Amino acid sequence: MATFAKSTFSHASYATLRPVYPPRLYETVLAYHQGHKELCVDLGCGHGIVANGFASSFTRVIATDPSSGMLDQARSLNSKTSNIDYRQSPAEDLSFLRDESVDMIVSGQAAHWFDYPKFFPEMKRTLRKEATLAFWGYKDHVFVDHPKATEILNKYAYGRGKDLLGDYWQQPGRSIVQNKYRDIEPPAEDWDDVQRIEYEPEARGRNSGKGTLFLEKRIKLGDCMDYIRTWSSYHGWQEKHPNSQKREGGGKGDIVDLIFDEMLQDEPEWGNDENWKDREVDIEWGSGLILARRK
Fold first, then answer.
1. Which of 10, 89, 101, 151 registers the highest number of CB atoms within 10 A of its CB?
2. 228 contacts: CB under 8 Å, gap ≥ 6
3. Is the pTM of this model over 0.85?
4. Among the listed residues 183, 177, 185, 182, the one whose alpha carbon sits nearest the alpha carbon of residue 138
5. Which residues of 118-137 are buried (b: 16+ CB within 10 A; e: fewer)?
6. Are 191 and 293 in contact (CB under 8 A)?
7. H or E element: which one contains 142?
């Protein structure tokens, strides 16, 4: 998560371009929850959409993040929600919380960064009996109607070498996301009723994947380019290639321009469209949701 704490990272772009979690995801978590609804804690809150999503269901929400820039975005975007408190803190240190005071702990697209040997003892201390843990994350998006574009994106995202992003993902975090959080295992002596809800998209049309779909979007190709530029791997690549700036900003092109150059060659409908950046496509994200109940 160090990338998102850097002053050079665009927290505003992250807040604008990242996927929004649908009501049915929150409903799934709340249907699982059986305890009180006094205090919910959102870990790695980013721009605050998860904290805001649960605010109406709990008396109080505390949103934490190690990045001051992310917290600034969260405060700005959720200024009208009065029952959210924000704290700059890593997930492994919740010393500001009393023992057994938390009813639900949640985290959207952040749990793959946690230091679990330190994290789970803190969960054991702070959560009440029968409290809920709910973590979810999403992996790479798929162009559901365009298998060639999907193949090209995967090649650039995980290939290794010059003008590829594979070497720039922070590990083991990215591998945990790719594996849909299966690597996160709540200790059996402290947690019960562990449930996993997953989705793996396919490039064979909308909702053609396997599992429960939560994250989908119809997006302009130009906005999709800027979304890829919010990836931590892109930020790492950019730091190593400071002179490679995107064409839209007056540069000669960055790696995202290269990705879409190849896509335009292999997707004729895109390449023959002068206004291809305004062309809308359907994308879906693979995802994993883990639910667990404190014994």
1. 89
2. 153, 234, 256, 259
3. yes
4. 177
5. ebbebbbebbbeebbbbbbb
6. yes
7. strand 127-143
Residue holding tokens 């709540």?
186
Q: Cα–Cα distance between 59 and 56 in angstroms, integer? A: 8
| Position 219, amino acid | I
Sequence-separated (6 or more) residues with CB below 8 Å from residue 36: 103, 128
Q: Which two tokens stand for residue 268?
A: 């004729």
CA quadruple 195, 198, 23, 100: dihedral, nearest 10:
30
**Segment 68-103, tens digit of pLDDT:** 999 999 999 999 999 999 999 999 999 999 999 999
β-sheet bridge partners, residue 282: 218
Count CA atoms closer than 13 A to 154's CA, side-chain side: 14
Q: Is the pLDDT of residue 10 over 70?
A: no
Give residue 174's identity as a one-letter amino acid code.
R
Tell me the per-residue pLDDT of 167-197, one tens digit each, with 9 for 90 and over.
Answer: 999 999 999 999 999 999 999 999 999 999 9
Contact status, residue 121 vs residue 94, Cβ threshold 8 Å: no
Concatenate the DSSP letters of all residues of 102-120 into one string: EEEEEEES-GGG--HHHHH
Q: What type of residue is 70? A: M
Tell me the residue type at 128: R
The amino acid at 28: T
* CA distance linking residue 102 with residue 37, whole number of Å: 9
Residue keyed to tokens 């721009």: 47
